[in-house]
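Students often ask what a holo structure prediction actually looks like on paper. The answer is less mysterious than it sounds. You provide the chain, you provide the ligand, and the output is a string of discrete structure tokens encoding the 3D arrangement of the protein together with PMT.
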Amino acid sequence: MSSGSNPESSSSSQLFSAESYFATQPSPPALDADVTGVRTFIARQAKAGRRVVLVTSGGTTVPLELNVVRFLDNFSAGTRGATSAEYFLSAGYAVIFLHRQHSLQPYSRHYSHSTNPFLDFLELEQIAEPQAASLTLSSQTSSPEPIITVRSSDPKHLHTVLSAYKAVHRAGTLHTMTFVTVNEYLWLLRAVSKELNVLGRNAMYYLAAAVSDFFLPREKMSEHKIQSGKGSLIIEMDQVPKILKSMVDEWTPEGFIVSFKLETDSSLLVPKARAALERYGHQVVIGNELHRRKFEVVFVARSAPPSPEHNRDCLEDASSQIEETWLRIDEQIAGAGKEIEEDIIYELVRRHSLWTRSQIRV
Ligand code: PMT
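The corresponding structure tokens follow.
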């Protein structure tokens, strides 16, 4: 980074491998506690014979200062991840939901942020008798305090969401973890992948988070707020190592790995998704174009996906068998509440089942 006011910064960039990245960039302070928590969760799910999916969700930030005032962000509200997590849970999976702090979360997403603000559903009433309605939050009759009543315009929907949320909590099948920066994300992704590796093929990875391709190594960051007095600011960022490669080859070689490819130029979507599949050798790339992502996605996968035993030398030959499958939903149906994630997860569960049982065509 260079600006007249930050002489301590350097302008040389280096190419980080995953190994050199983790050797030089600091781990998050809570990493050990996070690992202990997720290990306990995975052990419980393994005992119950459940499959586990890691869902990553939301955008990663790249801070520009150590005492951070400014940062770069990646686009993502967390809708894809939070919605998908719900469908995985209802399909019987246990979910590790690794998400950007304050982004959308499963179940609460229906009533958080600007969508259906929850406070709009609450009424204060000065009544002596408790409401008969099942959604009354307090049954105090003698209190002078007003009771709070929920008045949803769609109580059936609220009831469905609340029931599913409570059932998941009772079953203990949802474990949430948070990140803000791309550095936290990478450390957590590596740690969770290594823990989940004990489940072998019963683990799925659904990488919907929007991960920054560039970052500022700690040694190049300004300690204090970058000053603006001396003209323009030039920042030279280093490339974030492609962690998918490490996931496939080292951290979780048996896992069923699904990555997302986001493009704004739709003509690049399929070629880039195919290239990612060929480069990393994982199981599925889901391509989505920014503005059409709620209505259509393309699955890019090998007709016979590589198994853990697959000789990696064969990947080049296998590239000729790469297939594209489009999933589409009508925009009007989407407007009426249908979510494309329902179809995405249905298809992935089907493919994962085939993957766990055999290595035949999926
Ligand atoms: O949350 P929403 O608002 O609903 O938006 C959802 C979404 C559009 C963000 C989501 O569907 C999506 O596409 N997520 C992936 C975005 C992304 O990072 O795309 P990419 O083309 O930059 O990266 C492709 C893949 O490479 C990603 O799966 C990522 O995990 C992986 N990657 C990225 C950077 C990096 N250094 N190493 C990686 O391995």
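Residues 3-10, 310-319 have pLDDT under 50 and may be disordered.
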